[in-house]
Structure formats: structure tokens, C-alpha cells
Amino acid sequence: MNNPGIGSIEVICGSMFSGKSEELIRRLTRAQIARRRIQVFKPKIDDRYSEVEVVSHGGLRLLAIAVASSADVLERTDARTEVVGLDEVQFFDAGIVDVASRLADLGKRVIAAGLDQDYLGRPFEPMPALMAAAEEVMKTRAICVRCGQPASRTQRLVESTERVVVGAAGLYEARCRRCFEPGVASAAGSLPFPEDADGSRSNS
Ligand code: ADP
Ligand code: ZN
Questions:
Q1: Which of 48, 102, 142, 146 could connect to 151 by a Cys-Cys bridge, CB 3.0–4.6 Å?
Q2: Domains and CATH numbers, the chain
Q3: Residue 102 CB–ligand 1 contact under 6 Å
Q4: Residue 100 parent element (H or E)
Q5: C-alpha to C-alpha distance for 48 and 64, rounded to whole angstroms
Q6: What is the DSSP string of 36-65?
Q7: What is the pLDDT of residues 134-168, one digit of tens each?
Q8: Residue 174 CA to ligand 1 centre (angstroms)
Q9: Which residues, at least 6 apart from 166, have a Cβ–Cβ distance to it below 8 Å?
């Protein structure tokens, strides 16, 4: 997988809070330990925490370059770079699939993390095409905040039909297939245990 000179695309995908950024940071950190030259890019749309870092919900961080388009990724990738990290790939334009393939053809290891589904559970382009082009795909799962089972869906908690509403805690939560309610904005969010699932909240 890490054979220098043989390029490849690895995709890490799943719901929000599923550990995509953590896994991306883990792989990139290991590449650095192996003295590979790395570069990390993320689309400019996502400025939740920092313009220049990939930050996980657990607080891990890695320096990144914020770019406006997939073409900028190609342009700003140094010829000597061996490993290219891409975070929040669902916010890149469709050109990211060709760009990732070009980089892999040049012998680089491309590691891309992003949401596989949108807030309605629909495939989140350009992830499906990138998954098809990839040598390896990992699906990560969060913990369903309703029932505690592994979660594969991202529940939006605020009313909006916009596909992109950027934010994390308070705007979205992780849900399993059974607890997911596509298109229902449950503004109060979920209580963590099924005993409390009648919606009542107590401080005790
Ligand atoms: P992603 O990139 O997939 O959104 P991150 O890597 O940024 O995920 O964050 C994963 C971390 O989020 C976990 O290690 C955990 O600390 C935290 N977290 C918060 N809520 C949840 C949840 N419902 N399920 C799993 N992890 C959660
Ligand atoms: Zn559930």
C-alpha cells in the first residue's frame, strides 16, 4: 500500500463524528514518521475551526492548505510530495476525482476523507466517483446518539433544505440507520440513552 513510486487513492468515508479526520491525521502522521513528504489540502468552504489546519472533533490537528478548487490542489502540490491528504472531500468540485487520479498516476499516495452521504442520506458527490476510482475504501462509523449502536448517518438538527450547512455539534448528530430521520429537523437533539427517548429532559 505504501510502496514508494506506486501511486494510489485511499478513501476514508462515513458520517460526521465517525473519525474520518482522526484516521486521516493518523495515516498522515505515520507517513511523516516514515519520512515521506506530505501535503494536506482542504476546501476553503469549511472554515469551522481554522483556515490552515485539519482538526478532528476530538481535537487532533494537522497543518493544511485551504484551496478554492480542485485545480488549486494540482497546482499547489509540490513535485517532491509523496503523500497528499485531502479532507472534507465532499465540498470539493467534481474535478477532484481527476486531480486525485492524476496525482496517483504521478506515483503519489492520495488519502481522501469525506462524507459519503448528505443530510438526507443521499450519495454526496464527488465521493461516489472517488470511491470508484480508489484502490482502498474505509467506512468509518460514529456512535448513534439515540441508541448507542454504530452510526452511519448524519442527522441535521436545524431546518434547512440547503445541502451544505457548515457546522458540527448542535447542527448535526450521528444516528444509526434505524434512528435516522431524513428531512426531520429535531432541534432539541437526542438524549443519549433509549430510556430517555420519550423526549423528556431532566437534570437529575
Ligand atoms: P469526522 O471527521 O468523521 O467528523 P472526527 O475525526 O473529527 O470525525 O471526530 C471523531 C471524534 O468525535 C471521536 O473520536 C469522538 O471524540 C468525537 N465524537 C463526538 N460525538 C461522537 C459520536 N456520536 N460518535 C463518535 N465519536 C464522537
Ligand atoms: Zn440508533
A1: 142
A2: 8-140 (3.40.50.300)
A3: no
A4: helix 96-105
A5: 14
A6: --EEEEEETT--SS-SSEEE-TTS-EEE-E
A7: 999 999 999 999 999 999 999 999 888 887 887 76
A8: 9
A9: 45, 46, 47, 48
The predicted-structure confidence for 77-118, as pLDDT tens digits, reads as follows: 999 999 999 999 999 999 999 999 999 999 999 999 999 999
- For residue 119, the 8-state DSSP code is T
Contact 10, 135 (CB under 8 A): yes
pLDDT band, residue 189 (cuts 50/70/90)? low
- How many whole angstroms from 142 Cα to the centroid of ligand 1? 6
17 close to ligand 1 (CB < 6 Angstrom)? yes
**Ligand 1 neighbourhood includes 170 CB (under 6 angstroms):** no
Q: List residues with catalytic annotation.
A: 88
- In one letter, which amino acid is 40? V
Measured CA to CA, the distance from residue 107 to residue 177 in angstroms comes to 38
